[in-house]
Structures are given as structure tokens and as C-alpha cells.
Amino acid sequence: MKQNLIALLCGIIFGIGLSLSQMINPNKVLNFLDITGNWDPSLIFVMMGALAVAFVSFKWILKRPTPILAESFHISRKLSVDKPLLLGAAIFGIGWGMSGYCPGPAVTGLGLLSLESVIMVVAIYLGFFAYNLFFEQK
Amino acid sequence: MENFTPLSATAGGALIGISVTLLLLFNGRIGGVSGIMNGVFFAPKNDRIWRLIFLAGLVLGAFIFQMLVPDFNIPRQNYPLLLLGLGGFLIGFGTRMSGGCTSGHGICGIANLSIRSLIATLTFMATGMITVYIIRHSLELAA
Asked: For chain A, how many structural domains are there in total?
């Protein structure tokens, strides 16, 4: 119950952050990716703002034996840079550049009653299903 | 660069940093949206509800912000449907293959000093930039 309240609070804060930074505006994201056009570096500042907080906090949090409300930390321990990482990231980037959305803004845009967001969320889930059903190594 | 908004971008980014901090500190979870979305259907049954609640929070956050500051973010219209549908599919497929998106790799992974995440982030930024170049400047499909 408490964990669900934290999840709700974190979602709301994240959604407000994406709104304030205008990352839910797909054209602003495309203007960041459009380095030869009318370039808008704002997205880098969003990442730097987030990283400035998370660099410090993650280091401090992960010194704890456990999280406050859960039994353990769920963090990837993978180290190797492999083909799925590179190919998957490359494919994601193509979709990002085609649409101007990544998963966070696609979901968050539902709060603006944006029709595009509905299309994006459905299409992203189709991509999840396709990968999970046909390519996931069981 | 007349649309450059460094202050609101940095402040919004800091809020995202606070969000992923609280999620890790209290629940021990990484605030990567593609992984959270995927788990709504594909995580073990007892590991799904918080994900749906987090996603509902995202929607609620944007809705609250829109109530407080109307017309700050106006939904785009008339963008080519093919680019949205195919783009979304590639986003879902690619983020599952690489295990993260802008928030999971780009923020949480890099904050956790993961080389994998740094390389993933540089990769999707590069292919995103190439894709936008082709769409806007070669094919001139969308302004």
C-alpha cells in the first residue's frame, strides 16, 4: 500500500517534470534531434537537471542495505556492451526520431488528452508484445 | 535557437531526478518508463499494480500541470500517422531489446555510472538525429 502511494507520487512528480520541461511536446524533442535545423538544446538541460539530482542521490541511496519500503533493490547488474543493447538502442532511436516521443512522454501526453499519445502508447505496446513473444530468449 | 528554454528544462529535469530518487529510495525500483510499462503486462502478477499506478501518476501529473498552466503544452495535430504508428512500434521493440529508454538508460543508468546505459544513450541519440535529418531534410515529410 505504501509502495503504491510512493509510485503514485513519483509518477505525478515525473509527469509534472516532463510537462514543465515541455518534453511532452514532441516537436520540441524533434527540434533537439534536428542538429542541422533550428536546434533546441533544451533536452540536454533536462537530462543534466535530472542527472545532477540522481548522480548524488543514487550514490547515497545504494549505500543502504535495502530500500525503505522494500526488501531489495531491483537494479540491472549487467555489465557487457552486447549486440542487443546496441541494436535495440539504435532501433529505439529511429522510432524516437520518427515520432518525437519516447515512452515517458507518450504515456504522460495522455494527460493532455492528446490523440497522438493514444496512438503512441498502443504502438509501443505492440512493439513490446512483438519483442516479448518472438524474440525473448526463454 | 529561439525556442531554447534552459531554465524550465533544467527545473523539469530536476523534478524527474527527484522522482527517480524517491522511487529508488523507498521502493528500490528504477524509474525507467519503458520497463515499467512493459511490466504492466509481462511482470509477475504481484509486481504489476504499482506500475499501473506510476503510469496513472504520469498522466495525472500532466493533467494537474495543464490545469495550473493552460496552453503551456498544446497537443500536436496532423502529424503523419505512419510515423507515429511505426515509430511507436520501433520504440517498444527497441527498448525491450536494449532494456531501457531515455529515463531508464539516459537518466537512471547513467546516474548509476553504467557504461552500458551511457553507450545505449549515445546510440539512440545518434540514430534519432540521423532519422530526423532524413525525415525533415531529405524526405521533407514533416516540418
From this structure: 1
Counted domains in chain B: 1
Contact check, Cβ <8 Å, B27/A97: no
| pTM recorded for the entire structure | 0.96
Over residues B110-135, the pLDDT tens digits come to 999 999 999 999 999 999 999 999 99
Q: How confident is the model at residue B65 (pLDDT cuts 50, 70, 90)?
A: very high
Nearest to A68 by CA among B110, B29, B113, B50: B29
The string of DSSP letters for A42-62 reads HHHHHHHHHHHHHHHHHHHHT
Q: What CA–CA distance (Å, rounded) separates A38 from A41?
A: 10
CB pairs under 8 A between A and B: 499
Domain residues for the domain of A119 are 2-134
Residue B7 is predicted with a pLDDT of: 96
Q: What is the ipTM of this complex?
A: 0.96
* Chain A environment of B139 (Cβ under 8 Å): none
Nearest CB neighbour to B50, from listed A3, A31, A95: A3
Q: How far apart are CA A84 and CA B101, in angstroms?
A: 13
pLDDT < 70 positions in chain A: 137-138
Which of the residues A3, A19, A83, A87 would you substitute to probe the B interface, choosing the one with the greatest number of B C-beta atoms within 10 Å? A19
Range of the structural domain that residue B120 is part of: 6-138
